[in-house]
Queue: 2 jobs
Job 1
Amino acid sequence: MSHHTGARQSDAHNTLKLTTFACAWCGLTVSATTADGVPRDHCPSCLHSQHVTDHVEGGPSPCHGRMSPIAIAVLRTGDWRVIHRCVRCDELTSSPVRTDDNQLILMRMAVRPLAQPPFPLEAFGSL
Ligand SMILES: [Zn+2]
Ligand SMILES: [Zn+2]
């Protein structure tokens, strides 16, 4: 009897492990799905991800490097995606922004090119 109870507990533990992951950057325990059940692959707090999917070949990647959020891309549909770069192998990936992602970091990445233009802004003053 007690043996059965023990087995059931370890099953529940395994299920819990599959649906959460620890953020490779800030250590936050992240649920692998959002509150409305949408799967996610990056930390909603710091937006870092981990290189566990091989986006070129498909399937799991052996890399497991940390992926830093480097930019925002806006699709034709208006949806935002976070561009990640793997710190270990430099692979670039993009993943959809989720509703509970850190909006301050998202906005900071979105305006960064405007804050640091590769040409002098004074040019606009004389137009
Ligand atoms: Zn994090
Ligand atoms: Zn990698």
Job 2
Amino acid sequence: MTHITPPRPVDLVAVFPELTRLARTATRLHPRPGTPSVHDSSIGGPLLWPASEPWPHCHAEDHDAERLPSISLADARLERRIRAARNSEGREYTTEEREILDRMEERPATDGPIAMLPVAQLYVRDVPGLHPPEGADLLQVLWCPYEHDDDGMPKTALFWRSAAAITDVLVDPPEPAEYEQDLVPEPCMIDPEQVIEYPKSGELEGELRQRVDQWTMAQIPGVEFDGLEDDDQPYDLLCIAPGWKIGGWISWNMQDPYPNPCPTCGTPTEPLLTIASREWEMNGRHWVPYEDQAADILWGAVQGGPSSPTQICVSDVNNQIIRICPTSHEHPHIQMMQ
Ligand SMILES: [Zn+2]
Ligand SMILES: [Zn+2]
């Protein structure tokens, strides 16, 4: 299944030619629920992990939620599917569904380290825009499925690997005994697509910034965005692709743009992976791939519908952005929420 983003309803470069030099290519990942294997690129799927290497665990003690008993991840995902079926069909649980839900057993809460959870596995062959260290062709991202007090986000860990070097694959990785349900991704296949992005208005300067700020819906008759009136500014809805992606520009939604220097060498970091709570917003439906448009109209913004295939919800429907240092893969990554 391919996913193709329609062209923007307005060509930004035709209106603001200076944007040409600021264009960046981003790779939309287009995650959709599926059954990926360790040999597939995936979101929330199994990792090609060497059996000889310890599985990463989070030893932090600032988990921003009480650690409560949880059902297994498999049951959590089954529960989601049952709930989604009930919601989409607008009915009560069937007797059989109720029995399945009643059989789900909670495991006792623990206070030990938390096994990290696969978030993304991206093979360079599938995903343009990844720039691996020499010899690597696979990026793996895991997280601890809790918000942490220090930055309000799940802690992430990144691994670059050579897939060919992994001959003995771990078949039964540990899973977290407890977790925040909203931070457990539904296993998804991906279908990467490259799109062009321009900076958010907050990152523009001088006369260009002024012209962008003065550009309103009234100047693009015939183009509609949910909830936008003639006086409103459409630029920020057109410049950056929503959803999971590699590279591109940062969609500053919560803060004004600020520099994110590498903690080791001070070089400005660059966005690597955007982990998104939504693939698009209701006022940005022009980003919905052609293939999803009919289903999107049918489902609307329902959790688990076309706009939330991974069922991830970072904090208050935000994006978590992983940034890396362009000078060295050895330097630690940083993360931010927008
Ligand atoms: Zn943790
Ligand atoms: Zn650095």
